[in-house]
């Protein structure tokens, strides 16, 4: 018992320090988990050994990962992106898997079964790394962002048949087709049974639970569904993760999807962290050192090969060079689902020890360099044409036409709820404004309401100039992401030093960085919201409104003085 507690304490301590450091360095937490596994594992400092308990935790991490993937499996979303998902996504997976398989078979002298496992594994890219970075960079709705997310969505779907294929490959001897047909029939029967029963029962179960208004019962029910369906598919000889995926998919069609996703997130993130730690523990540093040349070739082939495949596809799809470069960089790494497949291949005996170590090492290294590669590609793409849409004369022309004749107007960057409220106040004062956003849904909604909102990314100088930056009287940046806001502030200050820039910030911790970038005033929502609540509380209990406002004024002054001293 004490030994197990020591293991848990060691892992939690390392995870706390590692994730905190990753957040400070603005890196995905998955990289810190991998480094922890490498450091404390049997091939590193040997503080921990690969035990059944640790592998059980890791397997539950995969179960919850696939459950989350199932929750994201929206038929409406899939239908809206069907061309990109099943065209662009399927092409990427097939070409990359074939290329990886051929290289493994011919260059590294492995069997065709090993080549197929490696090809499928390296074809997967990291949703955890890429989606997080695209969101932080405000690029989910750019052309490259949509293409990347379509590929990632198809990969999430494709991993399900892969989980059926690999056990069939391991069990096949002479008649592979017969084994695949049997495995597919068994899987199809089990999944059909689960879906038919689940569709009728899932909504009823949650409707019944919701009556009791108990968060504890709601979470317990979700855990029961995840574990129960995983047990069902595991008992049928299929993957545990497959049952979890079905459970998530069934819940995604109910009204309880978002509540379930919020409740399950802590379990998923923590257990998935243990999975990445166990993957890191498998990396043999001695093997990496003694096979550095082979490993370097494998990494170049993995990253370069995936990038070349995506570049060819984007060329056929008539992407501009900058969008092609961004998409290629965003997909040119291995991913967490690929690690699932490569580990399953090892467990099933489809990969030898050397092939497993070489592939695992190359995949992990590609994930480590992914954030830096994406950042570098984005900068180079910006130098090519200042964004994957800015080269289009129509976009610039639309903004220039709308801003033509505007003098002394305000430019609003980001037209979410905060930007919309700012626009209402400006309109009430009869002050002209022009808002820029890259979310098509917000632009359509604003157009329907009569707002002046155009498609454009304000961190590009051409866009700001087209919006009349030199004639504007002020700029308000209403982004929820402080890093994106910082880039816009820096871009503005390169053109105009005198214009006031008011920036929205979520937390007080972002204020100093934004002020250093050139912001005139930064409004931290948490701090200001607290002041308003405090003032309203005083007013409601009988304190004169003048005194309440004075308290607010004093608190703001003290905060400004504190920032100045800092």
Question: What's the quick description here?
Answer:
By secondary structure, the chain is mostly helical.
Structure description:
With 566 residues, this protein is mainly alpha-helical. The protein contains 25 helices and 6 strands. The protein has a 6-stranded parallel beta sheet, sandwiched between helices. Helix 23 links the parallel strand 5 and strand 6. Helix 3 (52-71) packs parallel to helix 11, helix 5 (82-106) crosses helix 8 and helix 8 runs parallel beside helix 15. It starts with a helix and ends with a helix.
List the helices and strands and how they pair.
Layout: H1 2-24, H2 29-40, H3 52-71, H4 75-80, H5 82-106, H6 112-123, H7 127-136, H8 143-171, H9 176-210, H10 215-235, H11 240-252, H12 257-282, H13 285-290, H14 292-316, H15 321-331, H16 336-347, H17 353-385, H18 393-403, E1 410-413, H19 417-428, E2 433-437, H20 440-448, E3 453-455, H21 461-466, E4 474-477, H22 482-495, E5 501-505, H23 511-517, E6 521-524, H24 525-540, H25 545-565
Parallel strand pairs: 1-2, 1-4, 2-3, 4-5, 5-6
Helix pairs in contact: 1-2, 2-12, 3-11, 3-12, 5-6, 5-8, 5-14, 6-8, 6-16, 7-8, 8-9, 8-15, 8-16, 9-10, 9-11, 10-11, 14-15, 14-17, 15-17, 16-17, 24-25
């Amino acid at each position: 018992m004490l030994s197990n507690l020591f293991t848990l304490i060691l892992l939690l301590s390392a995870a706390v320090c590692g994730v905190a450091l990753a957040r400070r360095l603005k890196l995905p937490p998955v990289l810190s988990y991998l480094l922890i596994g490498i450091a404390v594992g049997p091939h590193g400092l040997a503080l921990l050994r690969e035990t059944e308990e640790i592998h059980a935790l890791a397997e539950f991490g995969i179960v919850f990962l696939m459950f989350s993937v199932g929750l994201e499996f929206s038929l409406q979303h899939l239908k809206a992106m069907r061309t990109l998902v099943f065209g662009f996504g399927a092409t990427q997976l097939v070409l990359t898997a074939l290329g990886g398989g051929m290289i493994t078979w011919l260059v590294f002298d492995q069997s065709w079964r090993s080549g197929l496992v490696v090809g499928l594994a390296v074809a997967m890219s990291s949703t955890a790394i890429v989606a997080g970075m695209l969101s932080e960079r405000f690029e989910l709705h750019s052309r490259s962002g949509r293409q990347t997310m379509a590929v990632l969505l198809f990969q999430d779907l494709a991993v399900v048949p892969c989980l059926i294929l690999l056990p069939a490959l391991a069990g096949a001897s002479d008649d592979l087709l017969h084994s695949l047909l049997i495995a597919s029939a068994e899987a199809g029967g089990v999944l059909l049974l689960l879906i038919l029963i689940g569709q009728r029962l899932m909504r009823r179960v949650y409707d019944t639970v919701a009556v009791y208004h108990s968060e504890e019962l709601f979470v317990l029910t979700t855990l029961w569904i995840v574990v129960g369906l995983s047990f069902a598919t595991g008992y049928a000889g299929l993957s545990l993760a497959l049952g979890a995926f079905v459970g998530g998919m069934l819940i995604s069609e109910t009204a309880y999807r978002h509540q379930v996703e919020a409740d399950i997130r802590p379990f998923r993130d923590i257990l998935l962290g243990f999975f990445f730690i166990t993957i890191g523990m498998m990396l043999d540093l001695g093997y990496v050192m003694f096979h550095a040349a082979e490993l370097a070739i494998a990494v170049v082939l993995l990253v370069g090969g995936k990038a070349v495949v995506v570049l060819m596809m984007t060329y056929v799809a008539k992407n501009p060079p900058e969008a092609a470069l961004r998409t290629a960089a965003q997909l040119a790494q291995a991913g967490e689902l690929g690690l699932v497949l490569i580990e399953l291949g090892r467990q099933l005996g489809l990969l030898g020890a050397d092939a497993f170590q070489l592939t695992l090492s190359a995949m992990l290294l590609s994930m480590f360099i992914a954030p830096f590669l994406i950042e570098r590609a984005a900068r180079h793409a910006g130098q090519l044409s200042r964004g994957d849409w800015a080269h289009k004369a129509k976009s610039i022309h639309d903004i220039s036409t709308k801003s033509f004749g505007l003098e002394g107007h305000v430019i609003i960057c980001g037209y979410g709820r905060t930007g919309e409220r700012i626009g209402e106040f400006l309109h009430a004062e009869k002050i002209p404004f022009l808002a820029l956003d890259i979310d098509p849904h917000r632009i359509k909604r604003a157009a329907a309401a009569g707002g002046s909102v155009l498609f454009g990314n304000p961190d590009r100088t051409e866009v700001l100039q087209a919006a009349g930056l030199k004639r504007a009287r002020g700029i308000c940046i209403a982004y929820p992401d402080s890093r994106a806001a910082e880039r816009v502030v820096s871009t503005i200050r390169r053109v105009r030093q005198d214009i006031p820039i008011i920036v929205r910030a979520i937390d007080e911790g972002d204020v100093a960085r934004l002020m250093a970038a050139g912001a005139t005033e930064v409004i931290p929502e948490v701090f200001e919201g607290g002041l308003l609540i405090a003032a309203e509380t005083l007013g409601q209990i009988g304190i004169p409104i003048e005194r309440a406002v004075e308290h607010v004024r004093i608190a703001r002054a003290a905060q400004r003085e504190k920032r100045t001293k800092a």
